[in-house]
Amino acid sequence: MDYIAMTTGFILILIGLFGALTNRNILRMIVAFTVADTGVNLVIVGVGYMRGRTAPILDSAVAAADAVARIIDPVPQALVLTAIVIGVGVTALMLAYAYKLYEKKHTLDIAKFTELKW
Amino acid sequence: MVNAIHIISAALGAAFLLGVLKEEQRRTAYAITLAAFAFMTAVSAGWLWAFVMEGAAPVEILTAGGTPPFVINLRMALPEAALTLLANLTGLLSAIYLKEALFAHGRRAMAVLLIAVMALSGIILTRDIFNLFVFFELTAIATGGLILLSENDCSLSAGFKYLIVSQMISVFLLIGIIFAYHATGTLNIDGLATAAHDLLQGNNQAALGLKLAFFLMFIAVVAELKPFPANGWALDIYESAHPAFSAIFSAATASAFLYATDKLLFIGGPDWYPIATGIGIVTFVVSNLLALPQTNDRRQLGYSSIAQTGLVLLVLGQRDILGEATAFIAFGLLLSHAVAKAGLYWLSGLVAERELTAWAALRERPLLVFAFVTFIAMLSGLPPFPGFYAKWELVHLLAGADRLVLIALILLGALVEAGYLFRWFGYIIKREAPAEAAACTTHKLTAVVVAAAAGWALGFLWGDLAGTSFGRGNLLLALPLLFALGFVLFDWLPAWVKNTVAIAGMLAFFGLTYTEYDPLRLIFAIIILIGGPIILLASYHAHGRRIGFYPAAMLMYAGLAMLIRATDSFGFFAAWELLTVGSYFLILRGKNSEPHALSYIVFSLGGAFLILTGFALAAANVVSPAPTFALASLSQLEQPAAPWIFVLLAIGFMTKTAAIGLHIWLPGAHGEAETDVSPMVSGILLKAGLYGLFVLLMTMGKQQLYGIELTHALLWIGALSALLGNLMAIFEEDAKRLLAYSSIGQMGYAVFGLALMNHLGWLMALMFVINHYIYKSMLFLSAGGVAKRTGTRDMYKMGGLITLMPLSFIATLIGIIAVSGVPPLSGFGGRWIFYNAILTTDTRLPLIIIFLAGPIAFLYLFRLIHTIFLGQLKDEHRRIKEAPFWIILPQMIFVALLMVFAVVPGLALRHVDHYLNQFFPEGGLNWTSGTITSNYGYWDPIAIMIIGGVIFMTLFMWLLFVNRKAQKVKQFNIVFSAERPYRPETTHFAWNFFASYRKALGFLVQPFVTRFWGAVTDTLHTGADLARRLYNGNGQTYALHMLAFVSIIYWIYFIGVGI
Amino acid sequence: MVSRFFVLLLLTGVGAIFVSLMFGYVPDNALNLTARYYAENTVRDTGAANIVAAIVVTFRGLDTLGEVTVLFLTAAIVGLVLAGSQQGRLRREQPAPGELLVTGTRLLVPLTLLLGVYVFVNGHLTPGGGFQGGAILASAVLMLLLADPLREFSHQLISAIESISGLVFVAIGLLGMVYAGGFLDNRILPLGTLGDLISAGAIPVIYSFIGLKVGAEFSSMMVNLSETEEP
Question: What totals of helices (H) and strands (E) does chain C contain, helices first?
Answer without folding.
Answer: 8, 0
